[in-house]
Specification:
Layout (H helix, E strand, L loop, with lengths): L1 H24 L20 E9 L7 E3 L5 E6 L6 E2 L4 E5 L2 H25 L4 H34 L6 H30 L3 H26 L2 E3 L4 E6 L6 E2 L4 E3 L4 E3 L2 E4 L5 E8 L12 E7 L5 E9 L4 E2 L14 E9 L12 E8 L2
Length: 362
């Protein structure tokens, strides 16, 4: 009985294997593609990879880097927002620089006050003191001279009435009073003359230097407020409140490198596509006046005609179109820039990879 069961199981396994082999051997109908593969519309056309970017008269997207380093305290715009030139995009912590500006402005004000003080000399009160000292010295000289005259007349009438020592002391007292009057007179003239011209000029130069230093610090303070350099649309904000940024930009964890903190595009109705012609195909590139091109948007059946803008006449190593830093760069390419109007019903954004076919007019 047991052997019969084992024999039946073997027969069933063999039959199952045969049926499975037959089923899997029948060719299945291939699934249709999600979209038609792109094809070259030109008989001798050139294929190139392209990347969509904002249309600019020169360059590509507007990459904004801060000119100073600091911590972001405010982000004033959002992605997709249209902004005018001068609009505040982000603000960095400027507390230290603001304190420097306040200090230098105070120093400039103090220097200006000293200039005013020098120019206002002589002070009326100081001049009155100097005049009083002059009057006192004049009176002291008169007293000394009167005493000397008395001593001399007495000596002339009766030499024994005045000692020689007393006469000498009177003469010396007159000389001292005269010398004191000379000093006080010169001090009065100096006070009345006011500040020395060179002192005034020196202080004015110091004030000017402090004013310029404050102006430079104020200009640097303005760098902590990042503004839109031109009218445009904010495409990407790569920072947040609390993030540290520097003139090298902000750290991108995806590319593991530094990048702009904000990327803007132009406001015109066009987008641009920058395609890269392999160096072995450059010889087949038609003259600019004969170039025609068509763009295929990946994932759709849209075919967009392109308008030739310019050739960037410099062959350089192929850029990392995939945005992967490990991508191999083993050839050189020639950038060619086209522009187009975004097609209705199909979303196209800067940074998108597309296929570009370039041909020649008849």
């Amino acid at each position: 009985m047991r052997n019969k069961i084992i024999f039946a199981l073997v027969i069933l396994g063999a039959l199952g294997a045969g049926v499975s082999a037959y089923v899997y051997a029948v060719p299945s109908k291939p699934l249709p593609p999600a979209f038609d593969p792109a094809h070259n519309p030109y008989a001798n056309g050139i294929y190139a990879n392209g990347i969509v970017e904002s249309f600019q008269a020169h360059g590509e997207n507007t990459n904004i880097y801060p000119e100073v380093a600091g911590t972001v305290t405010h982000v004033e715009v959002g992605e997709g927002q249209r902004v005018a030139a001068g609009t505040v995009l982000a603000v960095l912590d400027d507390s230290v620089q603001r304190a420097v500006v306040d200090q230098q402005r105070a120093q400039a004000d103090a220097a200006a006050a000293i200039v005013d003080e020098l120019q206002a000399q002589p002070r009326r009160e100081n001049l009155a003191v100097a005049k009083a000292q002059l009057d006192l010295a004049t009176a002291q000289l008169k007293t000394a001279r009167d005493q000397l005259d008395k001593q001399r007349r007495s000596f002339d009438l009766a030499p024994e009435s005045v000692s020689r020592d007393a006469l000498d002391n009177a003469i010396n007292a007159e000389h001292v009073a005269q010398a004191n009057l000379d000093v006080v007179t010169r001090q009065y003239d100096l006070t009345r003359a006011g500040a020395w011209t060179y002192d005034v000029k020196n202080q004015e130069k110091q004030h000017e230097a402090l004013v310029r230093a404050a102006a430079a610090s104020t200009a640097l303070l303005a760098k902590y407020t990042i503004r839109a350099p031109a009218d445009g649309v904010v495409m990407s904000v790569n920072t947040a409140v609390g993030s540290y940024v520097s003139p090298q930009g902000t750290y991108d964890t995806y590319t593991q490198g530094m990048g702009p903190i904000i990327v803007m595009s132009g406001t015109n109705e066009y987008l641009a596509v920058r395609c890269y012609i392999d160096e072995i195909l450059i010889a087949r590139l038609p003259p600019p006046e004969r170039i025609v091109a068509e763009m295929s948007i990946r994932g759709s059946t849209a075919k967009v005609p392109l308008e030739f803008v310019r050739v960037q006449p410099y062959v350089s190593p192929k850029i990392e179109l995939s945005n992967q830093r490990l991508e191999k760069v083993d050839l050189r390419v020639l950038p060619v820039v086209f522009r187009f109007r975004p097609p209705a019903g199909v979303s196209v954004f800067p940074g998108q990879l597309v296929d570009v076919y370039i041909g020649a007019k008849p």
